[in-house]
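=== RUN LOG ===
request id: a7f3
mode: sequence -> structure
chains: 1
length: 175
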Amino acid sequence: MLYTGKGDNGKTNLFHCDQRLSKSSLVAEALGSLDEINSFLGWCKVKTSGKVLSQLSSTQDNLFSVQAEVAGADKFVTASDVEELETWIAEIEKDLPEIKSFIVSGGTELAAMFDFARTIARRTERKVVAVSEAGDVALNPETLAYLNRLSSFLYALARQANNEAGIEEEKPKYN
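=== RESULT ===
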């Protein structure tokens, strides 16, 4: 069955925990944001192939580990997961023009999707940081580093999508 009815009163359980917490709590908000970015990356995967598809699949697996950690499970991302994102970013950046200003989102559909994913990832990072700062869950330092690198990776993917399509980056006009 897809529902239990146990959350009808606005409360939910965490992993291996018999205490109920509000669905509006910092932890529930962070978990919801993690679910949102992971789901949106699934949509991005539909529009990609090859290496990017593989990278996004790996990223989704890592986000499940972060989500489990935030929920209290003994799962987490590692320093090598952070380094992997850094490697992917460096590989993408070597083929892109140097950034000299902010860039207006858009260009190709895929670039716009990656830009939108980046904003979801940044919001997710803020929510997970809030959970950590509140002391609700003890998080590994790699978790916060991973979420910070994730938005940079998605930004690089957006730039790469436009570059591969021959779309020139647009600078804001600042009226």
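=== NOTES ===
The helical segments are 26-46, 50-70, 79-93, 109-134, 141-164.
The mean pLDDT is 91.
=== END ===
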